[in-house]
Specification:
5 strands
Length: 188
């Protein structure tokens, strides 16, 4: 009989070990965020479901603090303004809840950080396409192949799994690494 707890931990351990190979990518993502902020730009984060919670988490780490005291950094989760989400969803459809915000807020040089475990969430893809047209830098966090999101990104972390929970667990570790590198830079 298989122990589901041991299997889950083993699976998590395998994925975590695979994250080692993405160290250079995480450094590049952190450097992109640092450079954008130093140039007066902002970071916009978005995703659905658990990825929406991750978007909020990333914004909180950057605006508040992760481990060190430093100035607040300009990061906005596009998942938190219920009036925007509901009015846009009602008037234009759920597929546009992020796009309308990107079109209204994002400027050239800003960073749009999109999380989608499948890489195929239509509202995320539409927002990323709008961000590309606005000449924003696009960071993607996704699952196994990156789906349709990956080719739209300047940088894309793909976790080698199909299950959203495992992908999001590794996303959280990866974005904590990025937030730590960004914070280290700005805490000097």
């Amino acid at each position: 009989m298989n122990d589901p707890i041991a299997a889950a931990i083993s699976d998590h351990r395998r994925l975590l070990q695979g994250l080692d190979a993405h160290g250079p990518l995480l450094r590049d993502i952190a450097r992109t965020v640092i450079d954008a902020i130093e140039d007066g730009h902002r970071v916009f984060i978005l995703g659905n479901g658990g990825s929406a919670a991750d978007a909020q988490h990333i914004a909180a780490e950057l605006v508040g603090r992760f481990k060190r005291d430093r100035r607040p950094l300009p990061a906005i989760a596009l998942t938190t303004d219920t009036s925007n989400l509901l009015s846009i969803g009602n008037d234009y459809g759920f597929g546009h809840v992020f796009t309308r915000q990107v079109e209204g807020l994002v400027r050239a040089g800003d960073v749009v950080w999109a999380l989608s475990t499948s890489g195929n969430s239509s509202n995320v893809l539409e927002a990323v396409q709008a961000a590309r047209l606005l000449e924003a830098c696009v960071i993607g966090f996704s699952g196994r192949t990156g789906g349709r999101l990956k080719p739209l990104c300047d940088f894309c972390l793909c976790v080698d799994h199909d299950a959203s929970d495992r992908i999001q667990e590794i996303h959280q570790i990866a974005y904590h690494v990025v937030c730590d590198l960004v914070e280290e830079h700005f805490a000097r």
